[in-house]
Amino acid sequence: MKVLSVASEMFPMLKTGGLADVAGALPGALAPLGVQVRTLLPGHPKVLAALDAGAKVVAEWPLWFGGPARLLAGAAAGLDLLVLDAPHLHDRAGNPYLDANGRDWPDNAQRYAALAHAAARIGWGELKTWKPDVLHVHDWQGALVPAYLHYLGNGGNGGKKQPATVLTIHNLAFQGQFNAAVWPQLGLPDEAFSMHGLEYFGDVGFLKAGIQFADAITTVSPTYAHEIRTHRDGMGMDAMLRWRQAAVSGIVNGIDTEVWNPATDALLPARYGAQDLAPRLANKREIEKRFGLTADDSSPLICMISRLTEQKGIDLVAQHIDAIVATGARLAILGSGDAGLEAALRAGAQTHPQRVALRIGYDEPLSHLLQGGSDAILVPSRFEPCGLTQLYGLRYGCVPIVARVGGLADTVIDANDAALKAGVGTGIQFADVTAEGLLEALRRAVQLFRHQPADWLRIQRNGMAADVGWRSSAAEYAALYARLVAKESHK
User: Fold this and answer.
1) 309 lies in some domain
2) Hey, which residues does 376 pair with through a beta bridge?
3) Same domain for 62 and 89
4) Which residues are annotated as a binding site for ADP-alpha-D-glucose?
5) Are 58 and 155 in a shared domain?
6) 475 and 460 belong to one structural domain
7) Domain-embedded: residue 271
8) Which residues are annotated as a binding site?
9) Residue 147 to residue 29: CA distance in whole angstroms
10) pLDDT tens column, 257-310
11) Which domain holds residue 419?
12) Is residue 140 part of a domain?
């Protein structure tokens, strides 16, 4: 089976968040199941620089959303890629979505419409030597693909069968909603700008289009698939998602267990396995040194690796640093985001310089060190489609302390009394995403760490034994693709 994955970023070439990790890991996980994945990416400078010397031009479009474009076929980091090389759209350094001032690029609608239109043309067979059976598109940046196929496909592909389409929603908060003024530039018929098409409260809704027209809609955890169909968490899309609920399912993300392996991770000063966790102490000492924290083996070192936003519950942490320190915990925080939250965390670190430390920015090597040496990782999100940092924590024996939402609820087993007696707990959950709920979870963690070391060790080892890789989830995607292709063949 042939699948074209359509993504705006992909690890290791270009990454701003978890989408890149998923796009980078899923092709390798699907290959043993007989699924050949090629990934279509925008021609960001980092992507073009990563392509091997054998990359070839397989299509050229003289005028493409304001300028010329080429479609390149090649490989990078062992991944099979198609790259839309349109310099007028994507030859921009830094963040792929934001300018140097942190504002959305004003032509984002055209940039990702071009990516989606290129995917649709590949889908209806313009590459003579390769035609996908399934187009798997990710988030709003790829969500116009099913709409282009719906409105333009029959004419564009000479009446041939359409490929099946899967839309994966990684985070419903990002919907790709644009002013109606962009409509004439998208290359869609006027009839498509209606409530039954792309019109969304007078604007153009990219994600809405994908929800409307994709054959299947997945989210990145079963609990999140349920949450987004509720008024509370549906972010204005819940009615549509309930209307399409027969097509909606949740498949939890996995992680690349070769990249994230504490026994072989070259980014750790000391490597280790579940049977001998003693080397983690050397990693902990390195964290304390780099972050300027006082060594204290009676106090758990808790890391946070996150976008610093209210969605991630960072305001709860920033506003209650004194109370968090009073629980006996220490904090090492890595991330960036809201300027006000950054300032509040910085102030907390200045107040408690030996107990709280902050590093602003994205640092992949440092994130490995934090997982490999911290005692626990805190993820207090108000909503979390899947989350990856808690999966890395499980893999590294860094005990997750998580809000009971979305994928966090699906991947961490709360170490309550019953779970401890059964020997199955893998972390600590809290359902009340408030300051008191957060502080009580931290008190539980400190109690376990200080006074129940055997239970703490069991929780670590349980987490390290958890299935956090892609094997099970890849099998679910492969089965979904097979069902869709079989359905298309009977039309």
Assistant:
1) yes
2) 302, 399
3) yes
4) 15
5) yes
6) no
7) no
8) 15
9) 28
10) 999 999 999 999 999 999 999 999 999 999 999 999 999 999 999 999 999 999
11) 280-465
12) yes
Q: Which residue has the higher pLDDT, 432 or 461?
A: 461
CB 352 within 8 A of CB 285: no
Residues 236, 126, single domain; the answer is: yes
27 and 79 share one domain: yes
Spatial distance between the Cα atoms of 89 and 93, rounded to a whole number of angstroms: 12
Specify the DSSP class assigned to residue 87. Answer: H
The pLDDT tens digits for 423-445 are 999 999 999 899 999 999 999 99
Would you say 23 and 39 are in contact if contact means Cβ atoms under 8 Å apart?
yes
Question: Greater confidence, 85 or 162?
Answer: 85
Q: Is 339 left (phi over 0), alpha (psi -120 to 50) or beta?
A: alpha
- In 198-352, where do the E strands start and end? 199-200, 203-205, 216-219, 248-250, 301-308, 330-337
Are 453 and 480 within one domain? no
Mapped onto helix, strand or coil, the DSSP state of residue 30 is helix
Strand, coil or helix: 72: strand
Is there a single domain that holds both residue 182 and residue 316?
Answer: no
Own/partner pairs, 285-293, CB within 8 angstroms, 24+ separation: 285/373, 286/369, 286/373, 287/332, 287/369, 287/370, 287/373, 287/374, 290/366, 290/369, 291/332, 291/357, 291/359, 292/353, 292/354, 292/357, 293/330, 293/332, 293/354, 293/355, 293/357
- Domain of 299: which CATH number? 3.40.50.2000
Token pair listed for 449: 């760490």
Report the alpha-carbon distance of residue 424 to residue 417 in Å, rounded: 10
Residue 153, amino acid: G
pLDDT tens figures, 189-234: 999 999 999 999 999 999 999 999 999 999 999 999 999 999 999 9
